[in-house]
Amino acid sequence: MANTDLLLLVLFISLPIFLLMFLKLIVRPRPVKIPIKSRHVFITGGSRGIGLALARQVASEGSRVTILARNLEQLEEAKTSIRLSTGIDVAIVSADACDFEAVKEAVESAAPIDVLICNQGVYASCELENQDIKKIRDIIDVNLIGSFNMVKAALPGMKNRSDRKPVSIAFMSSQAGQYTMNVSSCLVEIKTRPPLTRIIAASSGTMQVDEVVKKTLNGIKSGSFFVPCNFEGFMLSIGTAGPAPQTSYLMAFIEVISVGVVRIVGLCFQWTWYGSIEKWHAQHKLLD
Ligand SMILES: NC(=O)c1ccc[n+]([C@@H]2O[C@H](COP(=O)([O-])OP(=O)(O)OC[C@H]3O[C@@H](n4cnc5c(N)ncnc54)[C@H](OP(=O)(O)O)[C@@H]3O)[C@@H](O)[C@H]2O)c1
User: Fold this and answer.
1) Residues 132-172: pLDDT tens digits?
2) Which residues pair with 67 in a beta bridge?
3) Which of 20, 64, 227, 232 is the most exposed place for a label (fewest CB within 10 A)?
4) How far is the CA of 29 from the centre of ligand 1 (A)?
5) What totals of helices (H) and strands (E) does the chain contain, helices first?
6) Which domains occur in the chain, in start order?
7) Residue 111 reports pLDDT greater than 60
8) Which of 119, 138, 142, 189 for a ligand 1 pocket mutation test, highest count of atoms within 8 Å of Cβ?
9) Average pLDDT, integer, range 210-237
10) Which residues have C-beta within 8 Å of that of residue 250, sequence separation ≥ 6?
11) C-alpha to C-alpha distance for 86 and 60, rounded to whole angstroms
12) Which 8-state DSSP code applies to residue 48?
């Protein structure tokens, strides 16, 4: 009996150690730091919201910054506001991310890019059955095809740069629509939200734009594949990691051992959401 206990104890201690050693051996890619000082950071959707806040922050950290959006007047305003708050001039370029030729011209007119942040995005909150199919196409065009266009246009220059410092491409996306931030455009979106979306989204806290910017930039600089901005995002990144790259063997260890727990927490989220949905339907049935 004592021998069995001892064996179990040895296994309990040695298994995590072997797992850590194994992960240290296999995790790829190798960790890399992405410097941004004195480097060219190109931010799409940089004329307002998160993109503008990111542009202001990277400019203040000594990067050369270009911001891209469609509305030239708003770009000029963004440039002035960054100059007033940091004393630094950023370059502006007006182009529609959905138009590959326009994007290519915009990228070629700018200096070679070291860090590309695809942040342009549109969103219209609406029940699918009431959503205009053209609007759905617009969202896919701007958010998805627009990002393909940006990367395709920027890649040749990024690969052929003369300095061999690491480069980075980042995509700003929603955490499955589970949180909102206090930026002006978001407030418009909140007003048009279907009631049930509003109830479910309220289960996550709101984030300040500066907090999102800080986390985004730290994630880019540390070469992370996923850059979650809050706890739900962190859990989503573990739950959806699958074959995603991972530079840290310690993080890979956390992913491996906590994936089951994360699934349980995810199911608890679903349980509360379904509770809210059922309650909402029951209340509306009573009113009918
Ligand atoms: N705010 C949130 O709660 C939230 C949550 C999750 C994810 N996100 C994502 O974070 C990113 C920024 O969000 P935000 O709230 O800061 O957005 P925002 O304030 O509405 O700003 C969007 C930016 O994208 C530009 N843009 C839109 N369509 C474009 C196009 N076709 N070509 C080029 N630029 C275009 C806009 O300028 P023009 O209109 O002048 O082109 C603007 O500069 C988006 O990708 C969004 O999906 C936001």
Assistant:
1) 999 999 999 999 999 999 999 999 999 988 888 999 999 99
2) 43, 92
3) 20
4) 30
5) 11, 7
6) 40-173 (3.40.50.720)
7) yes
8) 119
9) 92
10) 20
11) 6
12) S
